[in-house]
Specification:
mainly alpha, 7 helices, about 75% helix
């Protein structure tokens, strides 16, 4: 572990921290998690966050839940993973059930649909801002900033513009990036 980082005190600290994170970032918690874990709590460095986030994205399930399990396991093994996982899911589950009960009578109202579309735009902006903030860590990446940005652009074009299913760019561009990184690390 890097000397610039600190540690959660115990599994309860993990549980409560991830519970608060899950409630702050409703609908798009990645930006909030990066700020809390890297900048505020200093449980991870930027590089550790990016590495763990990359692993979390390749696992099945919600990325941020996968990340919580990785972080919990890093500090307290299986019990930490379970505590972080529970913290990430219990409060949002209860909240969603309550909202679903309250939402049902108003589901057909156009104002409600407009509000939900507006929240989606805010979540997209938060994710973009976090990506920009994390770009500095690419300087330490074995591929270098330019090649990383080129691979990112290729993935964006494949998914957003060409509308390819994510599985194709994930395996083709991801495999290419992995092979290039392996070759650079080996030399």
């Amino acid at each position: 572990m890097n000397s610039l980082t600190s540690c959660p005190k115990n599994c309860l600290d993990l549980f409560l921290s991830f519970t608060l994170l899950s409630l702050q970032g409703f609908g798009g918690v990645m930006a909030v998690v990066q700020r809390e874990l890297v900048e505020r709590k200093r449980w991870l460095t930027r590089e550790e966050f990016i590495e763990d986030w990359a692993i979390a994205q390749t696992l099945p399930g919600p990325n941020v839940v996968n990340l919580s399990v990785i972080v919990g396991n890093r500090y307290f093994g299986a019990s930490g993973a379970l505590a972080a996982f529970a913290g990430m899911l219990i409060a949002p589950l209860l909240l969603i059930l309550g909202i679903a009960i309250l939402y049902a009578p108003f589901a057909d109202q156009p104002q409600v649909g407009g509000a939900l579309k507006g929240m989606g735009a805010v979540a997209a902006g938060l994710i973009l801002a976090t990506g920009i903030r994390l770009m500095g860590a690419l300087r330490n990446n074995p591929l270098g900033m330019k090649l990383c940005l080129l691979l990112t652009a290729a993935c964006f074009i494949a998914v957003a513009l060409l509308r390819l299913p994510l599985i194709y760019p994930l395996f083709s561009i991801g495999l290419l990036g992995s092979l290039l990184a392996y070759a650079r690390l080996k030399s």
